Amino acid sequence: MADYQRPAYDSIKHKLRQRWKIILAGLASLVLVDILQLTIPRVIKHAVDDLAMAGGYGKNLGRYGLTLLGIGLAIALFRYCWRRCLLGTARFVEETIRNRLFDHLQNMSPAFFDTVSTGDIMAYATNDIQQVRMAIGMGMVALNDAIVLGMAAIGFMLYIDVELTFYVMIPMPLIVISSRLLGRKMHRGYQQVQSAFAAMTENIRQRLSAIRLIKAHDLYRQSSSQMAEASSHYVQSNMKLVRVAGLFFPLMLFFTNMSLALVLWLGGSRTMVGSITPGDFVAFLHYLGLMTWPMMAMGWVINLVQRGKASLDRLDQVMRTVPEIRQVAAPKRLRQCRGGITFEKVEFAYPDRKRQPVISGISFDLEPGQVLGLVGPPGSGKTTILSLIMRHYDIGRGRIMLDGIDLRQLSLDDIRNCLAWVSQEPFIFAGTIRENLTLGRQDISGQHLRNVLRAVALEKTIADLPKGLDTLVGEKGVILSGGQKQRVAFARALLKDSSLLLLDDPVSQVDAATGHHLINTLRQLSGRKTMIIASHRIAAVRFADKIICLDKGKLVAVGSHEHLADRQGYYRQMIMLQETDNAF
C-alpha cells in the first residue's frame, strides 16, 4: 500500500540524502571557483603596483598574465564540475518528484479526477516541478555565492581598508529590509500565477481536443475570445507579480552603484594622499564588483525560493490527498477468480451529490458463467453499477461481493485482474493499433490475436489499413470511426482473458450487421465468462440468463427476455420501439 505520509518535501530530502557526496563535491567546486575569483583582484593589484613603481613599465606583466590565464582555466574546470553536480542533482530531484506525482495520481480514485481539471494536473507536472528544480539548483548556487563570495569579498575589502569597507556596507541593511517586505507578497503572487497557468493550460487542452467540433460549428471567434481571456488573466497575474519581484534587481543594482560612488569618492581621495596604493584601490573596485553578484544573488535566492515554495506547496497539497478507494491493510486474496457477483441492498451517491443516490436498494445474484443484462433509460444507474463492481467508487450502504468476498476486503489488484471492461466511450491511445490491443503485453500469440480480431469483426478493417496492426491511429484514435474504436476496445477486453467481462453499451456505435456479429461472439462466451452487459439495444441482452430493468436508480423489474417481454413496462416498450425502427 502506498505511503501517503511522505509529501513532496520528503521526496526532495530523500534524493538529496542519496546524492550527498555529489552535492558536497559540487559545493567544493563552487567554493574553489569563488576562491579563484577572489584571487584575481590580488594579481591585478600587484600588476598595477608594479606598473606604478616602474613608471609605466612592469617587468613581471607576462608572469601576471600567465597567472590569470591559469586561474581562468581552473575556474572553467571547477565551474563545469559544480554545474554537473549541483544542477544535475536538481534534475534528478525533478525526476523523483515527477515520478512520485505520477504514481500518486495513478493511485487516486476516479472521484479525484471528477473535480480536478487536466490543466491543473499538467501544471503540477510541468511548471510547478520546474520551479522547484530552479529553487534547488540555481537557488543552492546563488545562496552559496551570496554567503561565500560575499563574505570573502568583504574580508578582503576589510584587509585593504576598514573604514572604506564600512561605508560600502551601508546599503546592506536596506537589502534585508526590502527582502522581508516583499517576500510574502512574492509568495502569494507566485501561487496566483501558477493557478492562472493551470487554468490557461486547461483552456488550451479543451479547445485542441475539441478542434473538430470548433471547426464544424464555426466557433473560431468564441474559442479565440475565451483563450484570450484566459491568457489575459495569466498575463495580469504575472504583471502583478512583476510589480513586486521586479523591484529586487533594480534595488540591488542601485545599492551596488551607491557603494561604487562611495568608493570612487572616498577611495580615490585616499589613493591620492597615499593611504592606499593604486593597486589596492583597483583591487578594492574588483572586490566591489564581485560583491555585485552576491548582492543580486540574495534577491534572486529569495525570488527562486518564493517561487519554488509556492510550487512545492501546490505539489505537496496534491500528494497529501489520500485516495478515497484504498484497500485494507491485510486484504483477502483470490486464489482463482470465478466471477460470481452479488449485490445486497446496494446504495450509492456520487461525492458531489450525496443527497441524491444514483442507485438505491439494488440486489441481485450472478453465478459464475452467467450473463446479466442491464437496461433502463439514460441516468438510471447502469454505468454506475459497472463502476462499483470495478471499485472505482465505494458504496454508501449494502455489500458487493466477488466470489463470496466483500469487494472492500479484497486487494485492488485482485479485483481488477479478475475483470475486463469495455467502456461506453472507448479510449484509444495515440500509438499503433497493436499497442492499443495488447496494452504492452508480450505474451499474446499472433494466432490468438487473429482469432480475437475475427471475433470482433476487425480483421478486414485492419487488413485495409496501410500498415495493418502497426498503423498509427493518432490522438484518441482520430483515424478510426466510432464503431472501429468500440471494436478495438472489445478486442483488448477479450485479449485479457478474464473471468468477468463488463460491457457498457458494446454495440451502440456499430451498424446492425456488425452488431449482430458482436452479439454472436458474446453468446459464444456465455457459460465460459461471467458477463454483465449494459445496453439500450434489446438484441444485446435478450440471450442473458437474467435481465434487470432500472429506473431512477431502482430495480423495477427482473427476469428473462421472455418474461419481461410479456409484462407491461420499459422493457416491452423498448422492444416495440426497436421493432418499429427495424421496420423502417
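^ that was protein a. below is b, sequence first then the C-alpha cells
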Amino acid sequence: MFPKYDVIIVGAGHAGCEAAIGAANLGSKVLLVTMNMQTIAQMSCNPAMGGVAKGQIVREIDALGGYSGIVTDHTAVQFRMLNLSKGPAMWSPRAQSDRMLFAAKWRQMLEAHPNVDFWQDMVASLLVKNGRVGGVVTGMGLQIESQAVVLTNGTFLNGIIHIGEKQFGGGRAGEKAATGITEQLIHLGFEAGRMKTGTPPRLDGRSLDYSKMEVQEGDSPAGKFSYTDTPRLERQLPCHITYTSQEVHDILKEGFEQSPMFQGRIQGLGPRYCPSIEDKINRFADKERHQLFVEPEGWDTCEIYVNGFSSSLPEDVQYKALRKIVGFENAKMFRPGYAIEYDYFPPNQLKLSLETHLVKNLFFAGQINGTTGYEEAGCQGLMAGINAHLAINEQEPFILKRSEAYIGVLIDDLVNKGTEEPYRMFTSRAEYRILLRQDNADVRLTPLLEKLAVDSPQSSVFSLQSAIGDAPSIAERMKKVRKKQAAAQSIEQFFKETSVAPDAINGFLESLGSAPIRQQVKLHGILLRPNVDLAGLRTVLPDLDALLNQYDPDFLSEAETGMKYDGYIKKEQELADKMLRLEELKIFENFDYQQLTSISKEAREKLSKIRPHTIGQASRISGVTPADVSVLLVHMGR
C-alpha cells in the first residue's frame, strides 16, 4: 500500500510542518502523519507569531527556506515591531494572525509540494531494529517504512487536560491523546518526564465593551516577517489592553482549593515566563492588577483570545472572575481555559543535529524536547527535517553555531544544559545579540541554505530553480540577499564620501540637542551621533532622500544599523571568532571519558551522556569546568 519513504514526520504542528518542508526541499520523499488533517499547523494557543527573540527565530526560519514567515505574512491581521525604544539587537517583530487562515495557508503550501504525502492516523510505535529506526506502526496497525523518523508530538504524548477537579485524556481541546510511543521509548532506554502548559478562555467579542479598554494599534506602515516578496498589510485589526483587579484576584482565590496545580494533581512544571493567572496571583501577591491583552482570532470571527489569563481553575470560577474585568462585564465564554500535562524527553539525549543518541536516524523536535512556543518548535522542526535528509544520505549534519543564529543558541542550550521546565527563547540567552539581529537573518543564513542545497546530491531541481506555491526558489532568495548586501555597501560608501555643510545640518542638530558643526563634515560622522538617524537626515537633506528612495526600506534598516554599530559588531565578531577555535576542535566520536580520572566524576558522567561533538560544545555543558576542558585538550593532542 505504501512506498518506502525517506523521512516520516509524526505530528503536523509547527515543528512537524517545518520538518516536512526542511526534508522535502532538499529532495527527500516525506510522509506527514497526523491524527487530524483538519488541524494541520493549528495555533493551539495564542493566534500570533513572533515576539521578543521569537521574532528573530521566525526570520531565521524564513532565511533557511522555512514557511512560517511566509504563512504569517499572508494571514496576519496586525504587525508590530517590539522594543523599538531599545537598540536594534533587541527589536523583535510580532504579528497577530487569523487562526483559521494560518492553518489553511500552511496546508495549502504543504499540499503544493510534490515531495510531501499525508496520512491521517495515530502513530502507536516505531519500527526499530539493531539500534536504527525503520518506520512507524499506526493505530490501525499499518506498518510504513522509512529511512528516518522525526517525532514532533507536541502536547499529545499521554496528554491529560485539567479544568478544576475534572481531568480527561487529550492532546488539545476536543482531540484525543497519543499513546504507545512514550512506553516504547522508555523500554529502549530513553528518559522521560512530564511538563504542563495552559491556555486562556476564549470569549465572544460581541459581548465585550472595547470603549473601556486601551487600544493597541499595529505599526504604520505595517512591517512583515519574510524576506521574500510577501504582501504587506493594507489594513489591520486593533488589539486592546485591560487589567485584572483585587476583586478579580479574590474571586480566583476562591477556586484555589479546586486548582489541579495547587492540589498536586499536575506533576509537570509549567512555563516560568508564561504563568497561569492563578500562579501570577500566588507568586506576585503584592501586585494589585495584571495586564491582559485582548486579541482577535481573525478577520471573520468574533472569537477573542485573552492573553495573560491562562487558567485551569473550574469554569464557573473563571467565568465569574472574567465578568469583573473592565470591559468584560457582560462577557460570554466560548470555552474555558485549561491546563494540559504531557510527556517530554530531556533533550540532553540528543545530538546537536537533534538525532537521538540511542536510535540512529530518529529525531525529536518541538515540545517533545521540553520547549514552549510555535517559533521554538518550528525552528527545531526545520533543523530536524534538514538533518534527517542529510543523515540518510550519509552527509555531515547541519549545525548552527551560537554566533550564527538564535536557532543555534536554542539547540545548544537544550542539548548541553537540558531543561526541567518549558524552555522559551529570550534575547538574554544569546551572547552575540548584536550579530543575531532580526534584520540580517537572510544575510547570515541564506548563503548556508544555498550551500546546503548545492552540496546535497539528492536536492531536486525545483528546490534550486523554481518556486513551490508562494515560496521562492533558493536562487531567488540569494539574488535578493546579494542585492541587499550591495545596497548596504553602496549606502555606506556614500555616507563616508559625502560631506555636509554647517548651514544644511546645524538646525537639525540643534533641534536634537547635538553640537553644531563649524565646517564641512562627512555624513558618516553625523550619523554616528546619538539620536541621529536616517529618517531624520532625510527630512533636511533632499539629495540624501532622493538617493535612499531607490532602496527597499528593509535594506535601509540594515545599512543604518551596520554603520551606527560597526565598532560593536566588529568587537562581537572578534569574540565569536575566538570561541570558534574551540568549535573547530573535534572530539573523537567514541572517546571513552571514563578513562579521564583527572576530571570530576560529574564531568565524566555528563560528557559520556551528552557526547559533545567539539571541545567548544563540551565547555558549555553544565558541570564541566575550565580545568576539565584543559584535560580534554591535552587528550586531544592540543
